[in-house]
Design a protein that fits this description.
- With 143 residues, the protein is an alpha+beta fold.
- It has one domain.
- Helix content is 22%, strand content 32%.
- The strands form 2 sheets. The chain has a 6-stranded antiparallel β-sheet, covered by helices on one side.
- Helix 2 crosses helix 3.
- The protein is globular and about 50 Å long.
- The two termini are 18 Å apart.
């Protein structure tokens, strides 16, 4: 599949050098931005439970799940991407050198794009090399 080949050629062997969160997630890997509406990390529910129990200010946080996601993303900093996978719905999984994973699902209902890879950090309607706009729909920008 061409999309997987493109993602692998751009991301495999590169490291996560920075990330940000707002209305969506921005992961800077190598020379590219991987933008996602949602991310899933192993152990986020475990870390969320610990934070809710031991960190009193967690009760006032608007997007509580972002606390654990940010901490776990920080644990991936400077780690090399070792493998990329796409599932049948075009959910994206990045595996890292320490056998951890970042999963980018395609089931966010209230958005008009799920994830994209580009060099500018813009949303996919402005720029993309490869993008998943809807579950099961992937597009590659042909030059």
């Amino acid at each position: 599949m061409r999309a997987l080949e493109l993602l692998t050629s751009k991301l495999k062997g590169m490291v996560l050098s920075r990330f940000s969160v707002g209305d969506n997630w921005d992961l800077h890997i190598g020379d590219y931005w991987l933008k996602a509406q949602d991310i899933i990390l192993e152990d986020e529910s475990l870390l969320n439970q610990w934070l809710y129990t031991h960190y009193p200010l967690s009760g006032t946080v608007i997007d509580k799940e972002n606390m654990s996601k940010c901490a776990l993303l920080a644990a991936h900093m400077q780690k090399e991407v070792s493998r990329i996978q796409l599932d049948e719905a075009y959910g994206l999984t990045l595996e890292f050198e320490n056998d951890s994973k970042i999963i980018i699902p395609t089931n966010v209902d209230i958005v008009d794009w799920q994830w994209c890879l580009n060099q500018t950090g813009s949303d996919p309607y402005r720029d993309y090399l490869v993008a998943c706009f809807w579950k099961g729909e992937i597009q590659i920008k042909e030059d």
